[in-house]
Structure formats: C-alpha cells, structure tokens
Specification:
Layout: E1 8-9, H1 11-18, H2 27-31, E2 34-35, H3 36-44, H4 48-56, H5 61-68, H6 72-78, H7 86-95, H8 98-124
InterPro entries: DUF5997
Length: about 120
C-alpha cells in the first residue's frame, strides 16, 4: 500500500493563507504548487522573504483593511484598490482622512451590533 498523496494547493491559495500578496512573493513560490506540509513549515518557520513581506508589505486588501480597522468594502468605497505597504498604512493612520474616520466608525457600529446579537442569542439559549 502506498502512502497517501500530500494535499497540494495553488500558490494563490497558499499566499492567501500566509496573509501575503502573491505578486510580491519570490518567483519560485509563485511558480509551483505548495503542499500542506510546506505551508505549515512556512507558517512555523517563516523564511526572511515571508517575514519581510508580513512586516513591510505590500499587503493584500484584507490585511490593509484589518490594519486600518475598516472593512474591505470600506476600502473599496474610499477608492483604495491597490495593495499598500506598512509605511503607507501608517501614513493614513497618522493623517486620518475623513473617509477613514467614517469607515472606522461604521466598522465599530457593525462590531457592536454583532456583539449585541451574539449576547442576545446566548441569553436565549
């Protein structure tokens, strides 16, 4: 009986799971399939390129949204469509343009409402 084949994923999927932008990864990462074991190793022992990408960017939309405290939809409403670096994100947080203030308030209201609904559901259970 042969050993089971390792689970493989496309580089795009692996990059998403690692929280990095695929186009910013090394060519050898972009070119080949990634096994579940390789992904786990990258997460546990990130190579320098991965540590640098996570620290400095450019970051994918979901990570930009998380770091700014807004939703991905909020970024789209504000016209932020390009990946941002950590430095650019810091600049936005220092500047706090009106759109960012409004989107952060919207996100806070959404979180508060979700927490209220969870608490109500827990009380009813």
């Amino acid at each position: 009986m042969s050993s089971p084949k390792p689970q493989m994923m496309k580089p795009q999927t692996a990059a998403r799971k690692l929280g990095v932008l695929l186009s910013a990864t090394p060519a050898e990462f972009q070119a080949g399939m990634v096994s579940r074991e390789e992904l786990n190793d990258l997460q546990a022992n990130p190579p320098q390129w991965l540590a640098d990408l996570r620290r400095n960017g450019p970051h994918p939309r979901q990570e930009v949204a998380r770091r700014l405290g807004v939703s991905a939809s909020g970024l789209a409403r504000a016209g932020v469509t390009e990946p941002l670096t950590t430095e650019q994100i810091r600049g936005l947080l220092d500047e706090m343009p009106a759109w960012l203030v409004a989107e952060r308030e919207t996100q806070a209201r959404v979180r508060a409402e979700n927490n209220r609904l969870k608490a109500r559901a827990a009380d009813e259970a």
